[in-house]
Structure formats: structure tokens, C-alpha cells
Amino acid sequence: MSPPDHNPGVVLPPPPLAAASAGPVPLERWLAVAALLPALIFLAVVLAPPLNHDVAAILDFTQRWMAGEALYREILDVNPPLIFVLTRGVLALGGALGLAPITTVLTAVLTLCAASLALIHRLRRGLPEGPIEARCLTFALPLIMVAAGYDFAQREHLMIVLALPYLFLAVRRVDGLWTERWLVLTVALLAATGFVLKPHFLAVPALIEGYLLWRRGWRASLADPVPWTIAGVALAYLGAIVLFFPDYIEFLLPLAMAYYLPTTPLSEVIFNERMAPVLVVMLPAAVVALRGKRGLAPMLALTGIGALAAAIAQQRGWTYHVLPIRLMAGLLFVLLIARWLDYGLPAGRRWRVAPRVAVLATLALGLHNVNGSEAPWRELNFARSWTGVISDVLARVAPGGRVLVLSPDIDPVYPALNYANARSTLPTMNLWLFQAFYSRCLADGTRYRTPEAMGADERWFHDRVVRDFTTRPPEILMVARHIWIPHCGGQFSILEYFERHTGFAATFRRYRLVADFPSYRIFRRED
To answer: Per-residue pLDDT for 4 more than 60?
Structure first.
């Protein structure tokens, strides 16, 4: 007997993988494998080196924090503390299990993806999904979890993984469907954790909760524990920063406000080669979804818009800032096409074509997430990349050693250090502070400030690097050839800058050049 006709008032559960079909069962299974194939390919990609450079840098800083260096006082980064706290907890657990740090991080995030999918599976029970929509979601959601590719485990990726169950819960809330209280609170707490990773992410729940307020009215929203849970977590986190990380407020934030805030024009953030193609897909799909006012589509649209607001607020337009918009745009487009087919095809035919549409949907979604991204090209070329080459050199000349990296780059310094089991000694992840100190030519025409002419922040940075280098010389010194500082009558040499200090110059004479690349020189200490 054919399943009942699908319409907005009928609640259909997602069909099982072997749903009734006109074709033979083996064909059904082959179609299921084909629909899963893009997710399996992306899974292989995220497990292959290299680890994302920002994820690797946070991993390195967390290890230094665990080794005794004071976070936000001896090691400085603009990221709020939650990502370091979470990484520290994960590393402690991985260490107890005997896992290597990179393996620990990847395993933890993949476990989080699996937990998110399990929550979504439970939340989808009783939601109004047609057979094609249900089938496409069943296979598209695992792909979304790993489609970040090279940006896997970035905070934007973690936010989406933690937020997706919250979006399905929002569908249940707007439709007035009963949900177990433990499930509601679990999903709300996980989503809140993802949203507070960066303050910009709070734009997403603000839009979702505003939408639910508009749809349900004040009475239902005030009685709902979800927005109060998210607000409570955000306020508790802010209080925890003040209590347990006062250096972030008192020392790091003033530095960030003075030297780190971006100035990229809005036009360059939106109309670059990464953001613009995604918006071409996202914005029209969002208009269609919000006009429909039903199911998951409006939630995906609002999440994409919130992610766009977060990207604009950060004023960078980097690949991982675009990532959540790209993921939501692709999933939303697939969902809208599936719903259109569910409404347009006869009831019996929907069930027959659903497995084939799911294959096409996941293939299209996979191609959408490859286009304009860095995966799988970084993974395929890892051995020949500067990250691979430098990590091989470091692993050969000083495995597990300490490295002073004088470079404006995060990539390829990270994850090259991580793969060599080496540890940075620079107080920052790169020379972002240093670039700010010399963003303009000096008024007196000199190339470098004398120690007496330095401001308090530059003097602190200078003295800290010199002190660490002279009192406990690292095994390796790695120097970038280009610091990306204005020319000002002559190229800025970071070595020349520090060698003006007699102690630094004397210590540097103990080092021998072991690798000379177009972008980097690597020196090893000769004892």
C-alpha cells in the first residue's frame, strides 16, 4: 500500500534506509552506499594531514598552558578562553587513553559529530518530512558534519555541529511538538557552548529566538527554557572569564583593541572569491525559505544569515568565516529542492525516486563544498607543501624540540610544529603584534625604534623574546624572510631588529643554518 500523501499537516517519520521501493533491495543498498560516499570521502580528507593551522596553533598554545605558561600573560592570543579550556580537557582525556595530541583532537570532534547526529535522529521523530526530504536529510547531515574539509575543528565548524540539533529542536518548538525535557536541556546546553565560542556567533540564536517569538508570541517564548538556558550559559561564561581569566580582560583585551582589530573594508569581506559565490546560493534560498515559514528551511536560512553577520563583524572574509554560510547554503538548497519534489510528485512516485534524489543531493552538496574550499587539495599535496617540508626538516634536526619562530604566518608554521612534536617559544602565535608596532614608517626616518623609544607594549614583546632566547636558547630558530611590514626605505629584517641586543646576537652565533627556503630559514643550535 502506498504511504499517505504528504502535505504540511501530515507528520511523516523519516523512512528507513530500506524503505519500500519499486527496485530490488540490492539496488536500494547500492544507492544508500552511493549517497554515503561523499561523506566517506570527506571523512578520509579530514583524517588526512594537514590539521587546520588555527586548530594546530590552539593545540600548541593549550599544550604550553598545560606545561605551566600563564594563558593571556605569558602566552597571548585574542581568542576567548573557552576553546583552550575545551582543548585542555580533551587533551587530558586523550593523554589518559594514550592518544597523540592531533589524534585526540580529531577523535574528539568526530565523536562530537556522531553525538550531534544521534540527537538530530531523535529530534526528527514526528517532524513533518516528506519521503524525499527525509531521505536527503538522512544522508546529507553526515556529510555536513565533515564537509568542512581543511577547516574541520575550526570554531565555526564546531558551532555548526553543536547548533544543528538546536535547529531541529526549534522546528519542534515552533510546531508545538512535545520533546523530552532532558533532550531539550541537552541540546540547549550544547548549542550555547557552540555559540559562546565567539561572541559573534550569538547572532544565530538571536535570530532563531526572535523568529520563534514572532511565530509563537511572548507567552510561549517566556515559558520556554531554551532561550533562558542559552542566555544563562553566556552570562555564566562571561562571569567565569572575569573570575578565572582576569588577564584576558586586563592585559589581552587592551592589546587586541589597540593592535588587532581589523580594518578590512566591508566590500572586500563580501565581494571576495570565497564569500561572493556562497552568497549567490545562500541569499535567494533564504528568501524562499523564509517565505515558506515551515519546517527546517527557515532555521537554516536564519543560521546562514547569522553566520554572515558574524563574518562581517570579524571583517576578514577568510575561508573558515565563510564556512558556516557555505554549509547552511548547501543544506538549505538541497532541502528546498527535496520539498519541492515532495509537493510536486505523486505520492507513490516520491518513495520510489527518494533514494536516487538523495544520491544526487549528496553529490551536489559534496561538489558545492569542494568548490572554493582548500580541501582536498591541501591533503593531496601535503608532502610537497611547505607545511610538509618544514615539518620533515624539524622532525629530522630537532624532534620534540623548542622552536623560536619569528614569522607573521600561522600557516605553514602550524601544523608543521605539531607534526614534528616541536613547541613554539614565541609569546604570540605569530608576529601580529610586531606588525602592528611597525604598520607605519617612523617619523624620524629610522628603520627600528631604539629600546628607549619603544612604547610599553613593544618593549615588553622585545624584552620577552630576548630574555627567552638568551636564558633558555631553543633548539631551533625559524625566521621568515618576509615580515609584511612597510618598506620604509629598506626591507625590515626581524633578525637585524633583535641582533641589536648584544645578548641576542651572542646567542645567535651558536646557531647554524640547516635549511634555506624561499620563505624561511631554519637554524639549529650547536652546543
So the answer is: no
Angle, in degrees to the nearest 10, between helices 203-216 and 297-314: 140
* Region for 488 from its dihedrals, namely left if φ exceeds 0, alpha if ψ lies in -120 to 50, beta otherwise: left
Mean pLDDT taken over the chain = 92
pLDDT of res. 271: 87
Residue 161, judged by CB atoms within 10 A of its CB (0-12, 13-18, 19+), counts as buried
252/258 Cα distance (integer angstroms): 10
- Other Cβ atoms closer than 10 A to 287: 11
Which residues, listed in sequence order, are joined to residue 525 by a DSSP beta bridge? Answer: 511
Residue 67 backbone dihedrals phi, psi, to 5 degrees? -80, -5
Question: For the whole prediction, is pTM greater than 0.85?
Answer: yes
DSSP 127: -
CA separation for the pair 303, 4 (Å, rounded): 32
Would you say residue 6 has pLDDT above 60? no
Nearest to 144 by CA among 301, 354, 304, 366: 366
- Convert the pLDDT of each residue in 372-386 to its tens digit: 778 898 999 999 999
| Neighbour tally for 166: CB within 10 Å | 28
What is the DSSP secondary-structure string of 359-409?
Answer: HHHHHHHHHHHHTTS-TTHHHHTGGGSHHHHHHHHHHHHSTT-EEEEE-S-
Q: What is the pLDDT of residue 188?
A: 98
What is the rounded CA–CA span in Å between residue 326 and residue 515? 39
The stretches of 196-270 forming alpha helices (DSSP H) are 203-216, 218-223, 225-244, 246-247, 253-259, 266-270
Nearest Cα residue to 146 out of 47, 49, 56, 39 = 39
SS3 483: coil
**Least confident window among 1-15, 104-118, 350-364:** 1-15
**Grid cell at residue 293:** 515559514
